């Protein structure tokens, strides 16, 4: 990957593993939080439910990558549907919390938590990949490069989120600089959906994938767009995209 991607990944590791561990531990639990963070928690809960709703109700026998798993809420829900989940994050501390919070999973589902880069090819192949709010900190070119890397290991769908570039979001994040540091989120990069679609269409590695649907979640200081890329496995598509 590019130097900007690697630099930002290192910054995120520092933030989530050292600077904001306590804040994210509380945000992803039932503990009381500030009004600002309460809107973020509600938005993340809604987004997670939306992404899970785009996956099959029965995931038995399917392999899923939770790319940027944080404390593991999405991974657990997918495992409860029967998925074999590999959940990875750059923050050893957040992964440690995820392991501590992991409940017993009834049925065939399972979760394996790992520390590392979500783009690591050694993670293997998956039926579905979900990257909830783990690409929102990157520039559009790096987002598309990451999607291209992940697409090489995806047999079904690739679900991810981006921060939409809106006047409201720009104002909100400018205003956020006035709040106490405990209420500040790490820097995100607003992206226009039209521009991202053009980049995806121009990326050869994504030629077999198409945008299936999108969904925006707006909850106070949480504003994010979910996008589903679905692989076209038709014989015509496979033949035309062969390299």
Essential attributes:
243 residues, 8 strands, Rossmann fold, alpha/beta, 8-stranded mixed beta sheet
What does this structure look like?
- Residues 235-243 have low confidence and may be disordered.
- The protein has one domain (3-241): 3-Layer(aba) Sandwich (Rossmann fold), CATH 3.40.50.150.
- Strand 7 (209-219) and strand 8 (222-231) form a beta hairpin.
- It is α/β, with parallel strands linked by helices and 243 residues long.
- The chain has helices at 3-19, 21-27, 35-53, 73-80, 92-101, 140-151, 167-176, 193-201, 235-241, and strands spanning 63-67, 84-89, 110-115, 126-131, 154-164, 190-191, 209-219, 222-231.
- The chain has 9 helices and 8 strands.
- Strands 1, 2, 3, 4, 5, 6, 7 and 8 form an 8-stranded mixed sheet that branches.
